[in-house]
């Protein structure tokens, strides 16, 4: 019987794992890989304490940090996916795709989410060659350049707002006639002279040579095909949380995110906490996931030792 099972090897999970080791909680750490979404980024410039770090290097450092502290108290299972969590008389059972079955008193879900991909001709070819899914990671690399944001929800407008700090121009494309973001946010962002919003569009193709040079779309208002010259395309068309394995046990919101108490990261199921991009937190970034993981671990420790 473990005190805790942590699911996921991103910043939130690793932060919780390091704290679990230091607090001597008997922990099983299960992850398929390390680092989370930002492993694909060539340079992360907002990881606090490090001016610039490639995503792959961050993943290595996260693993090394947990390895340095885990001693005999944190057991790591790599290249395994948790397929189901079940309630038991004394806690929970975590089952993995490798056939493992593990008993635990508590569970911390930090399995993250994946960006919904842009699915038009050229999108695969130019991923990481102008197409990016992380403005906070990659935005500064497009300073003084023309960029496009895909997606008219709050995430799209928040991305546009970030990019306006250093891009030459930002054009946001919305599929429908009306933006889905909050009206106040829309008005504020579109008031910037470097910003342009285009609604009622159908994306057609990403153009380029070695890197992105433009994006073509159909203007559904007049039926014409148009092209926007740009060197960067930031995609914000939604996230897919990795929560299928837990959906029978904890309440999820309409997006599939785990609903948590922001003071403690507790879910509505006693004994289960969640942190990072798989939760319904308002903002999702590496540093935020790390804080979520630490906050959850502190509460888990108090929960276990209050008995």
From TrEMBL:
Keyword line: Disulfide bond, FAD, Flavoprotein, Oxidoreductase, Redox-active center
InterPro entries associated with the record: FAD/NAD-bd_sf (IPR036188), FAD/NAD-binding_dom (IPR023753), Ferredoxin-NADP_redctase_2 (IPR050097), Pyr_nucl-diS_OxRdtase_2_AS (IPR008255)
UniProt GO molecular function: oxidoreductase activity, acting on a sulfur group of donors, NAD(P) as acceptor
Domain named FAD/NAD(P)-binding: residues: 2-290
Stated name of the protein: FAD/NAD(P)-binding domain-containing protein
